[in-house]
Amino acid sequence: MRKIYLLLVCMIYALSAFSQTRKVEGKVTEQGSGAPLVGVSVLVKGTKTGASTDQDGRYAIQVSSKESSTLVFTYIGYVQREIAVGDKGVINLALATDDKVLNDVVVIGYGTSKKGDLVSSVAQVDMNDLAKAPVRSIDESLAGRVAGVQVNSSDGQPGSSVNIVIRGANSITQNNSPLYVVDGFPVEGFNLNVFDPQEVESIDVLKDASATAIYGARGANGVIMITTKKGKIGAPVISFSPTVSFDNNIKTMDLMNTYEFAKMQLELVPGALGSATDPTPIYTLLTRPGKTLEDYRNVAATDWQTPFFQTGLRQDYSLALRGGTDKTVYAISGNLNDQKGTVINTAYKRYQGRITLDQTLSNKVKVGVNANYAYLFRSGNSAAQGTGGSGTTNILYSVWGYSPLSELTEDEAIDETTSSGTDYKFNPIMNQKNLLRNNKTHNLNVTGYLDYAITNSLRLKITGGINNTRVINEEFNNSKTYPGSPNTTPGRTSGVNGSVSQANTNNWSNENTLTWTKTFNKKHNLNILGGFSAQGNTSNAFGFGATFLPNEKLGISGLNEGILNPVTISTSSLWTLSSFYGRAKYNFKSKYYLEASYRADGSSKFAEGNKWSYFPSLGGSWRFIKEDFLKNSKVLSDGKLRLSYGKTGNNRVNDFAYLPSNDVVPGNSYPWNNTYVSSIIPTSLGNPKVKWETTDQYDAGVDLGFLKNRISLTVDVYKKNTKDLLLRATLPTSSGYTTAFKNVGEVSNRGLEITLSTININRKDFQWNSSFNISFNRNKVLALAEDQLTLLSTTSWDNAYANIPSYIAKIGEPLGLMYGFVWEGVYQYSDFNRSSTGEYLLKDNVPANGSARQNIQPGDIRYKDINGDGNVNAADYTVIGNSLPLHTGGFTNNFTYKQFDLNVFFQWSYGNDIQNMNRHVFEGNALGKRFLQQYESYTDRWSPDNQNSSNYRTGGFSVAGYSSRTIEDGSFLRLKTVSLGYNIPKTILDKVKIKTARIFLSGQNLYTWTKYKGLDPEVSTYNSVLTGGFDYSAYPRARTLAFGANVTF
């Protein structure tokens, strides 16, 4: 009886509770346009009850039927509204978009700020545009999106590294990449591939020193703030985003046909044809008994490009669960990215998972944790990667250069008729299929925080995190690869071989801040932040290799059975950084702003006396739109002037660079105690005076809004000087060392950035908005080492060019200048005297091209004699190109018509040059190799019957060197992204219980307008500040067509 009584009580209580609630529903739209807003948070104030709007902007929520309730409507970028429910059952409202841009929240160092309150230059990336680009990583999609941010990739290989430079390069020899702050965790050299782009909430770029000085020693190169997505208040929401993409090469190179190839070979070695009784390789290859050269006009060339390239398939799947109450919000997500490259036996995979939890413990205390794990797998060798330093071993060299007359089958390794000791012609398809090149990356990033509101004005925040990375590299060369083949060239005695190495990096960080915020008399707004932090990093690497592996079937697992390489890898290092910092922000009536910061950094990388450095900043702004004389302006809706100064640093030097170093050399031994021991040699002279590279930066900007901010314009001008650059200065020979690191260099950057955003059409059924940005940067070297006017750099693409400078840095000139001879076409008959025996002898007043004068013939390449001494040599090298562009930018258009949306994005670079070394090899055979196929363009070359051609004759190249002949204009305008989407109507989705669904078709790298003759103008094989714009055997960038969907349940 008692159980029945308790059951009845519970039922009555439940019915009573149910009768005390009722449903309120409605629709939320954008004020002005009337467009429905999707994902607006609707919360019953003071309770855990919440809901969000669907695709049509509709919501439904339960409220108390007895007590008065208030609904809170929140949507990022819109004005928050609170509506008293009363007795209403339907509440429709429009959220205001006035001053939307000014109220957007951006993430800055140790906090956030409204755009309208900024005194510094901070750019916010439009994540909606980024989400529409079919790319595998965040950095790929940043190019052209933000003024002042230049993104350079070495080539188009899946998983290849990307360099990001903000407002020009500050350092000559050290790292120029920005500092990444991921959910409050500062990380140098962060690998953005470890994140699924779908999981990024916002990206904010801090560009001037007023914004970056709070990061002191690591802020000189700019700071990129990345905030990942978290849970949201409301019922659990499942998001699923599948995408399937197809990648194809944008371009392949046109090569000679069989006739032109045979003709070129006969021109190269006249009289070496041989006969049927005495067949030379040329005879066997070209004439075949009973055939003449003419017979090859209709012989199909062997196609090596088609089987080498393939259609790449990319599959990307993202799944996420988000939800929560006003006390607890959570998010769990995972991503799988599987990509097959456009070159056979190349691929890239990413397996990634993330979990976040934010818990409000009380009205004063909030804690949270964010954990991300990623496994990255990249297979296949880079197209720009050779073997043993020879340019003849790069994989595109073997594809382009192989004889079109070769009858080599897929199972044959070498064409004996064309192979030689200096040009090992190995089957490019067999080689590429059998090479094992694996790069495996494990990354774990965990951050946690405690946020304690001590009072309404004073807040303590403690954050901590770890970032652990393990990278494993595996190489294995079996007997069907060039490096492991038994059919070796003289001197190659490695047999089947392989190697393995591992590098581990463990980074930890702790940040502690106190923030005091106060408003006085509703006019004076003050925000003061103070904090201290500690960060440390440990790293180690080890590895070994082995040759003559007896059992190649074991692959990389059989290294222990071979002959171990005596040169092994074993290194370890560490560094720590301690910091104290503060910032004060003040504004009067949100009209006049003043901000100052100061940071002290102490680093273990420097010796006593130089461990600590100090980084101040000062900035101010004037919101003149709030002045009485502009309040009623019908044209100008926003106006602000900004001025700032700051000092930042770059501590990315080698750990313990101030200490002398020694190396163990196993190959050089000496007798000791009746045995031989490895020798130790000094390699670097220490310098305890080594200190930070420091940058002083000045910035002036204006932010304007017109016609209720339908037109927004931001213009920034800046100047930054970086001094105390670390360079290797020459030492006296009496020291026993050649060079040592010293703080002696100086570089300046000056620039202009313009960003224009417009709302062109804003109607209920049709919207069109645009965004345009353009950046100009002028870089100049102000100082090098003592008594040094130039700094030469080489590019190690071929042994013959290992010691030949290809780039130069000069005082008074920008970095990245290309260096070489000035090309003057070819020698003509008029440049020669003819002897009685018919020989051509170069006239005395005509300079030689570096070869002996008696060997130069009509049709040979000709260079300019800069110094006028009659002979062209290294003294005639000069600047022949500039790898830095005059300006870069991007242009985006977004269209929405009813359920359809269209995004079109253009990216460009103008004024930069490219050193096209592919033409150096395949448009004239500058390496001097026999039986080397050439580009079709070389069919137009100088000959007695074709004297107007600018291409030199066969065999007409002189000494090894770079020249302006292969310098090309690298400017381009690229249709980077086109994405067409369709939002499926709610009436259809309700039937299958789906909340929202969008399907889309996207294209990437669809078309490029350029004069560049190579595969792709967006290339820099040796991707550095000193050697930019170098193109040799780069992995082709792909054109991508993607199909996908974004679905929520």
Kindly summarize this structure in a few lines.
This protein is mainly beta. It contains 12 helices and 52 strands. Among the domains are: 80 residues, Immunoglobulin-like (Sandwich); 131 residues, Beta Complex (Ferric Hydroxamate Uptake Protein, Chain A, domain 1), CATH 2.170.130.10; 43 residues, no CATH class; 237 residues, no CATH class.
* Gross morphology: globular
Proportion of strand residues: over 45%
- Unreliable spans: 3-19, 98-103
| Rounded average pLDDT | 87
Number of DSSP helical runs: 12
Q: Can you count the beta strands?
A: 52
Percent range for helical residues?
Answer: under 10%
Q: What summary fits the major beta sheet?
A: 22 strands, antiparallel, barrel
Question: Distance N terminus to C terminus?
Answer: 45 Å
Structural class: mainly beta
> For the CA atoms, what is the radius of gyration?
33 Å
What assembly state would you assign to the polypeptide chains in this entry?
single chain
Task: Characterize the structure shown.
The two termini are 45 Å apart. Among the domains are: 18-97, Immunoglobulin-like; 101-231, TonB-dependent receptor, plug domain (Ferric Hydroxamate Uptake Protein, Chain A, domain 1, Beta Complex); 258-300, no CATH class; 812-1048, no CATH class. The protein is mostly beta strands and 1049 residues long.
